[in-house]
Every structure is written in structure tokens, then in C-alpha cells.
Write a structure and sequence with these properties.
Two copies of one chain form a homodimer. With 226 residues, chain A is α/β, with parallel strands linked by helices. The first copy, chain A, is built from eight helices and twelve strands. In chain A, strands 2-1-3-4-5 form a five-stranded parallel beta sheet, sandwiched between helices. In chain A, strands 6-7-8-9 form a four-stranded antiparallel beta sheet. The first copy, chain A, binds a DNA duplex (30 and 30 nucleotides) through helix 6 and helix 8.
Chain lengths: 226, 226
DNA sequence: TATTTCGTTAATATTGTCTTAACCCTGAAA
DNA sequence: TTTCAGGGTTAAGACAATATTAACGAAATA
């Protein structure tokens, strides 16, 4: 299998250098010169790895990263940032925008190649074991690591409680969960919240993911049915 | 009758705490510190209830649960898991390993005791009526978990009272249930409802599932016959 | 600090379920 | 044949459970 790498930088020199070195190693490489183009190219090219400069005209790396992560196909790809050494990467260190790693400029070809190989290795492992941490039921994919839900291609970032409620219901499609049980599972046995709280969260899930997915059994509880 | 409870956790502190509180309530308690020991102790001790941590050395809770369920004597016992809240309950919520319920850590003694009592109450009922969660009698399948009735492939979603009445009658096909008994079982001994109420519910069941399935014994009661 | 997002609740609306009243039917005893 | 007891049937209304909306404080975020 040939791996695909997308390079994004506004300096053509750097793009050429990196591309040359990666292609020499047998990777398929495409390039983009700003964030907006990167998002477009990503959708067509579907790379396993994106190497992206943070500072760019038109749309910066962070923003592009977020946009890509919001695409249904943008969950799996590894995104690594290129940064000037002294650049303030405190912002990205937390990877709030969904970046996985970074590499400091100036970039030495050797180091780049070995890093890329390491990333792609990680990508392979990740997709191997993805089945365990991801639940997939009838077009609805729940990624417990990233706290992200994908429904028929649309990506949702659900708040914690909603996410947990959803994860619970989806864990056994068709099974009815009583209110009592739900309270235990999602809120814990020491927290006391009113019954309406569950309704409201159910409502939000229905709003976001589809009314018909969550069925009410009056006097009993709720169930998820694809 | 004294109930027997088996506690399984790798932390001695927790075992001590739980044991103390349960013994104070009059339960017979034994403990084990990993899954393997739990299975052994179970065979000797034959408890009605097992409280088990999910994460343990040697053999984890899930695996132990499965092994116990595979024993001839492991069908009746109620197995509840101790879990850190927000722990990944996707695996256990589906009860793939045969667990019945769980309680979230940190565990407050009060809550523990009341839960244990509820579980043991359920155990008593369970063995009383041998109410397995699925009943299948002559093309009629009652799935208490999914709260769904299937009759010759057709799926019905019955309201609560109807469902309970049906479940009662079907639990002993051919047996006649007196009106008094039905009132006790479905409505509870404190609720007062007129006699016509039962008729009406029977009517609805006949309408939905077939006239001939529910036979009236005048002056006595009703029975279900496939 | 300013701002936004979350979680919860209160108040109200809405829905499905349960119960009942009123009346009908049947068979057996008077 | 009447009468009566037990059950059958129907639809209306009572009732309880859930839905919905907005609003508030708390928490996270900028």
C-alpha cells in the first residue's frame, strides 16, 4: 500500500524540498499553498498524513485543521504542524484544534522521513485497533477517544453528558434503558438530578442526530434504534 | 434465609469497607482479590450476588463474569460490576459478558446497601417465577429487555400494563390466573381498580395478538394457551 | 474580565396510557 | 321465559409520563 502525504506551506521552496525527499521514499505526495486549498485537496486526495505550516495566508494551519476534523473523513488522518523553532507553539501544544504532533523548522530531510515513517506506522496501528474503541451502529459512529460522533457523514462535537447518554444508549441498540439506570450510568449514584434533565438531553440528541433514533417507552425508559 | 454476597476487588481497603457494611446488614460475605479467585470462591460459596470490580489483575471482571456464567450453577447469580464513573461502559452495558447491573465508584455505603437489597429482592422474584428475560411460547416471543413482543414475526410495542399482564400470563402457559392474582401481580396489592380494568386489557391483548390465545374461565380467571 | 457553552430546572404543553361508566352479550338457574 | 351473574365492548375522560421552551447559574473559554 502506498501512503499519501499532503504538504501544506506557503513557501514553494519548502514544498519542493519536502516533496522530493518523501517521493524518494515511495510516498505519494500532493501539495497546497494555503489552508483553504489544503482542505480542498484533502477531500480529493484523502491522505493518511498532513504536514502543515501553521502560518499561512488565506487560512492558517489551525483553522484548516479544525475544518478538516469537522469533515466526516477527517477523523483518521494524522495532522502534524511545521513550526519555526521559536514560534509560540504553546497554543498548539494542547492540540485543541485537533493536531497530532509537530516538527520544528528548519527541517532536515533525514529527520523528516523518519518522523513521517513513525507517524504512518502509528496510523496503521490506530486503524487496526479502531474497531475496539469505536462503535458503529447504522450510520452512527461514536469515537470515544476523540469525543466525536459522525452521523451519515455529518460530524458532531457533543457535550459530555449528551455524549455519554448517547454512548450508553447506543451500546445496546434496541434495549430499553430505564430512567433509573440512565441516571446511574451517566450521572452516578450520588448525584441527584430531576427526571426532566434526562428528557432535555434526549431532546438535544434527537435534535442533532434525528428524532426517530431515540424511542420513548412511556413508563419504562428510552431506547436507541437505528 | 441469609443471603450470600461475594465481593471481588483488588483493593483490600474497598473489600473491607464493603464487607463491613454488608455484614452489618446481616449478609454473609466472602471476598476475592482477582477474577480467578472469584470463580473458585463462587463455586464453593454459591452466592446469590456478586459485586465485582471490572479492572483487576490476573483475570478481569468481564472474563470472570463470562466464566461464571458458563458454569452450570452460574445462571442464577446476579453479577454487578463496580466501575469508576465515566469508565467505558460500552462493553458492559450491552451485557455481552452476562452482567446484570453495575454501581459506580466511589461507593457510598448507604447506596450500596440499598442497591444490594434491591438486587436480592430481584433475585427472589427471579427464582420465584423463573422469569428469564426472554420467553418463547408457540411463536410468541417476549423480550423483557427490549420491551418488545414478537408474534409470528410481527413486532408489537405494548404499553406497560398490557406488557406486564401478557408477561404474567405467558410465564405459565395453560395455567389459570385468578383476577385477584392478576391484580396483585400487575397492579400491586395497594392499588384499587375495578374488575372491568382487567377485561379491557385482555381485550387489547386479544385484539393485538389474537383472540384465541387468551381463554376466559368464567368465575375463575384467564389463561394463556398457544 | 468578558463571553460563550453546558447542565439543570421550572413552568407549561402535549401525549399516550389507564380507568371507568354505561351498556351489551351469554348461559344457566329459577 | 325471565332473571341474574359474570364477563365483553366501547369511548370518554382522568391521569401520569414525557416534551418543550426558556431561563438561570456554573463552568469553561477567550
Amino acid at each position: 500500500m502506498q501512503f499519501r502525504v499532503l504538504l501544506v506551506d506557503d513557501e514553494q521552496d519548502i514544498l519542493d524540498l519536502l516533496k522530493y525527499n518523501l517521493e524518494k521514499e515511495g510516498f505519494a505526495v500532493e501539495t497546497a499553498t494555503n489552508g483553504r486549498l489544503a482542505v480542498q485537496t484533502f477531500q480529493r486526495f484523502q491522505p493518511q498524513l498532513i504536514l502543515m505550516d501553521v502560518m499561512m495566508p488565506e487560512m492558517d494551519g489551525m483553522e484548516a485543521c479544525r475544518e478538516i476534523r469537522d469533515l466526516p473523513s477527517g477523523q483518521e488522518v494524522i495532522i502534524a504542524f511545521l513550526t519555526a523553532r521559536n514560534e509560540d507553539y504553546s497554543q498548539m501544544a494542547g492540540f485543541e484544534s485537533g493536531g497530532d504532533d509537530y516538527i520544528a523548522k528548519p527541517i532536515k530531510p533525514r529527520i523528516l522521513v523518519s518522523k513521517v515513517k513513525a507517524w504512518l506506522k502509528r496510523w496503521e496501528q490506530k486503524t487496526d485497533s479502531a474497531a475496539s474503541s469505536n462503535v458503529d451502529t447504522g450510520g452512527l459512529v461514536i469515537d470515544k477517544e476523540k469525543y466525536v460522533v459522525t452521523n451519515n457523514g455529518q460530524v458532531f462535537h457533543l457535550p459530555k453528558k449528551e455524549f455519554e447518554l448517547l454512548a450508553l444508549l447506543v451500546s445496546a441498540p434496541g434495549r430499553v434503558f430505564t430512567r433509573e439506570y440512565i441516571l446511574n450510568a451517566v450521572w452516578g449514584n450520588d448525584v441527584i438530578v430531576g427526571d426532566r434533565t434526562i428528557d432535555v438531553h434526549i431532546r438535544k440528541l434527537r435534535e442533532k442526530l434525528g428524532e426517530e433514533l431515540f424511542k420513548t417507552i412511556k413508563g419504562v425508559g428510552y431506547k436507541f434504534e437505528p
